[in-house]
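User: Hey, my collaborator sent me this sequence without any context and asked if I could get a structure. I don't really work with proteins. Can you help?
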Amino acid sequence: MNPGATFYVPTADQWYKAAYYKGGGASAGYWDYATQSDSAPTEVTAGSTGIGSAGSTGNSVNYNQGADWNSQDGNVTTVGTNGGPSAYGAFDMSGNVWEWNDLTGAAGSSRGLRGGGWNDLDLSAVSSSVSYSLDPSLELYNLGLRLASPVSGVPEIDPNGLGAVLGLIVGGLGLLERRRYGR
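Assistant: No problem. I've predicted the 3D structure and written it out in structure-token form, which is a compact way to encode the shape of the chain:
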């Protein structure tokens, strides 16, 4: 990460904390799902304009091609409509699209993926225990990103201070438009 950057792709630790941290101090722990729950979320559906079925609360995730709208079998939903915010105010960090994160904190480094996507058929893809590493040049219709911004006064990622300071997750996903390759 460039120290003078205004926005950047969050590190794997920053992304994980923004999604799963329970809040309330260094010993609060982490949720199993980014819906602020240890219980498996339900599959979200969508109205004709892409608004998720959960509204502003609920343990729901857009996976398993459940959000059928705009004449497409499975699609992304509007960010913020699949449940409440995380402890850091981030919405929909499970489901919709897999999100890139920086595995090493260095520019041009390898990239990780977390969160699961709208087309994942297995609920385990949206759990806190699942992550992948892919070549950053890869383009797929179910990949997106979030950006972070440095802020002061935010606690370290872990009590030993090994993680970077968590940045404010900036609203939205960078790639919400579904790419259609041969479909």
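In plain terms: Strands lie at 42-43, 60-61, 98-102, 111-114, 132-134, 143-144, 147-149, 168-170. You can pass these tokens on to your collaborator as they are.
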